[in-house]
Amino acid sequence: MRNYTNPPKIPYAPTETELYPETDGKPMAVSDMHRRILTRIIQTLENHFTQRPEVYVSGDILMYYVEEQPQKVVSPDVLVTFGIGQKPRLTYKVWEEGKVPDFAMEMSSKTTYRKDLGEKMELYASLGIRDYVLYDAEGLYLPTPLMGFTLVDGSYVEMSSNTAGGLYSEALGLEFRLRDMDCGIYDPVSEAWLQTPTEAAEARAENAEAEAAQLREQLARLQARSR
């Protein structure tokens, strides 16, 4: 006879969210300056790829890289993946996406630069992330404020600076350059600096105002000649 007053205990099965949490409880950046720069870089890349719906840009998202091993997790400051779409994600599970990011970037600081140049670099190389860029906003911790590495035969090889001092990411088709000691992103195809949506809107407004002023000046000249 079954005992319904003391039923057997069923092992607890964690939910998907509990097994793969959306946050590790750590802050997005170590300082307001790092947060500002990081946000601008992500927004700049999102704006650049906005017309390419297959390109996913994110940052500070937990990336789980081994199924059923939630301890195998890392959170790149910036990541870009081609071919998986721009849909919003709570976490990045490599086995569901079908690939690792093509590009990763870290904002190095006093507390992270050793890990960025060591443990994370080894992990990203072993995962097969094609290009890896590091930026030291304070210019104190990395050998140079801006460093880049590209994957060759399973290991990272340091990128060489071009004549303009930029590091070219073949994965993105873009250059990372120091710009007034800030990190700027340059498009060598359009020969222009990339902008955030706000910066692009401000530039359009300025151009429109300049064109309007030019038209007013031309009209004034025509009116003066007709008198």
Features:
227 residues, alpha+beta, 4-stranded antiparallel β-sheet, tt1808, chain A
Question: What can you tell me about this protein's structure?
Answer:
This protein has 227 residues and is α+β, with helices and mostly antiparallel strands. It has 2 domains: 16-195, tt1808, chain A (Alpha-Beta Complex), CATH 3.90.1570; 196-227. It is 30% helix and 23% strand. It has helices at residues 16-19, 32-48, 94-97, 113-117, 119-127, 197-225, and strands at residues 55-58, 63-64, 73-74, 78-82, 92-93, 103-107, 131-135, 146-152, 155-158, 167-169, 174-179, 182-187, 192-193. Strands 1-4-6-7-8-9 form a 6-stranded mixed beta sheet. Strands 10-11-12-13 form a 4-stranded antiparallel beta sheet, with helices on one face. A hairpin with a 2-residue loop joins β8 (146-152) and β9 (155-158). The chain is elongated. The termini are far apart. Residues 9-13 have low confidence and may be disordered.
